[in-house]
Design goal:
The protein is an alpha+beta fold and about 210 residues long. The chain has a single domain (about 1-209), classed as Histidine kinase-like ATPase, C-terminal domain (Heat Shock Protein 90). Helices cover about 50% and strands about 20% of the residues. The protein has helices at about 1-25, 35-55, 65-75, 95-115, 160-170, 205-209; strands spanning about 60-65, 80-85, 90, 120-130, 140-145, 175-180, 185-190. It has a five-stranded mixed β-sheet with strand order 2-4-5-7-6, with helices on one face. Helix 1 runs antiparallel to helix 2, helix 2 (about 35-55) packs across helix 4 and helix 4 (about 95-115) runs antiparallel to helix 5 (about 160-170). The radius of gyration is 17 Å and the shape is globular.
Length: about 210
């Protein structure tokens, strides 16, 4: 029981830290209270989906493909226009929360301005690893938009850009590259596979064994 309570406190603190960071960043923008509440609400909805998926798996992690599908399911009209390419693997709990925020932000932006804003637009989410036998080798994850309007770099850096760029790089100890192409947005994250994947000793069952 002590181990379970300790784990619960740890998970709760991580979630609250993410929520506090979101609120601080959004509060810095010049928006009305109504816009602020809406921005918080939609992002908490995305975070809630990730937490719900983790809870259903007893916090042992969530497969990468499932996380993408969960975040895109929030946008019902977009779910069937996303292609997934890569060998599936289980994300650790922190990676589920952090990557879930990034995917939700990319999808929101695409619905408003990108490929998912038009009927013919599509998304390809793909990932490859330099050396699958080496957990420290780089994982290359990308979100590529096609068939939509040309991507344009935002004039001002808002909370969304902070999430998909600085937060993503810091959370996974990697590098983020964003290309605003005529053919659509290309977002990519290069980071060690071990920053994403669940390792031994990360489940309650293993802690109590």
């Amino acid at each position: 029981m002590h181990l379970i309570l300790h784990e619960l406190v740890h998970r709760t603190k991580n979630i609250l830290t993410l929520v506090q960071a979101m609120m601080r960043q959004l509060a810095r923008q010049e928006t009305s209270m109504e816009e602020f509440q809406k921005a918080i609400s939609t992002r908490l909805q995305g975070l809630g989906k990730s937490i719900e998926a983790l809870a259903s798996e007893q916090w042992v992690g969530v497969p990468l493909k499932r996380l993408v599908e969960i975040q895109l399911d929030v946008f019902a009209e977009a779910a069937d226009r996303v292609e997934l390419q890569g060998q599936d693997f289980t994300l650790r709990a922190e990676a589920v929360q952090n990557l879930g925020l990034v995917l939700h932000e990319l999808a929101t932006n695409s619905i408003k301005y990108g490929a998912l804003s038009v009927p013919e637009g599509r998304i390809c989410v793909s990932w490859t690893q330099d050396d699958p036998s080496d957990p420290t080798s780089l994982l290359h994850l990308s979100w590529q938009e096609m068939g939509g309007p040309p991507a344009r770099e935002p004039v001002q850096t808002g909370f969304g850009t902070t999430i998909v760029k600085r937060h993503a790089a810091a959370a996974f100890g990697g590098q983020v590259d964003i290309q605003y192409r005529e053919t659509g947005l290309l977002w990519s994250l290069n980071a060690p596979r071990e920053a994403f994947e669940r390792g031994p000793g990360e489940t309650l069952q293993e802690l109590m064994a």
